[in-house]
């Protein structure tokens, strides 16, 4: 039968090396000793021998309560996960003959998204005869990029993809 799969650091009888550098519960360095001996000393104090740095030579082990150690490591990981922000790509769709007020409303949204730390994909959609006037759409996208130049950088310059022109802006 295979040994149980462990998550987290090795401890007590799962430590594979013969000798370990031991640090007691107060952070005092007890020096290098046999693993068996160290496990017995840890048990006397009512703690486990936990491998802190398995890649060192010899590995470093410390007297800790393994349950509490794993619990605190899990709490720290959850805290990190909570703090990280995922960057989303928000899409704003326009037409080449967009009115000034409509343009201003869309640009307010673009600025809001960029300030929240999200990327913005500006999509210029062309229909029918508008396809022949790509420069009009390019002018609108150019105007948009100049307007947000101080808070954003152009990640993908305007390019045609089928019937639409795309441009991606990322926060600075």
UniProtKB/TrEMBL annotation:
Pfam families: IF3_C, IF3_N. Residues 12-80 form the Translation initiation factor 3 N-terminal domain. It is found in: Cytoplasm. Residues 88-172 form the Translation initiation factor 3 C-terminal domain. Belongs to the IF-3 family. PANTHER family: TRANSLATION INITIATION FACTOR IF-3, TRANSLATION INITIATION FACTOR IF-3, MITOCHONDRIAL. IF-3 binds to the 30S ribosomal subunit and shifts the equilibrium between 70S ribosomes and their 50S and 30S subunits in favor of the free subunits, thus enhancing the availability of 30S subunits on which protein synthesis initiation begins. This is Translation initiation factor IF-3. The gene is infC.
């Amino acid at each position: 039968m295979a040994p149980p799969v462990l998550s987290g650091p090795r401890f007590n009888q799962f430590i594979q090396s013969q000798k370990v550098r031991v640090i007691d519960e107060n952070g005092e360095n007890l020096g290098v000793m046999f693993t068996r001996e160290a496990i017995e000393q840890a048990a006397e104090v009512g703690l486990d021998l936990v491998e802190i740095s398995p890649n060192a030579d010899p590995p470093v082990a410390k007297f800790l309560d393994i349950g509490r150690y794993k619990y605190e490591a899990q709490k720290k990981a959850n805290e990190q996960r909570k703090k990280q922000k995922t960057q989303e790509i928000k899409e704003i769709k326009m037409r080449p003959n967009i009115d000034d007020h409509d343009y201003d409303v869309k640009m307010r949204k673009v600025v809001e998204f960029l300030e929240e730390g999200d990327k913005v994909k500006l999509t210029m959609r062309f229909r029918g005869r508008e396809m022949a006037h790509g420069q009009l759409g390019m002018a609108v996208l150019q105007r948009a990029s100049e307007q947000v130049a101080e808070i954003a950088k152009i990640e993908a310059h305007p390019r045609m993809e089928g019937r639409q022109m795309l441009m991606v802006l990322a926060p600075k």
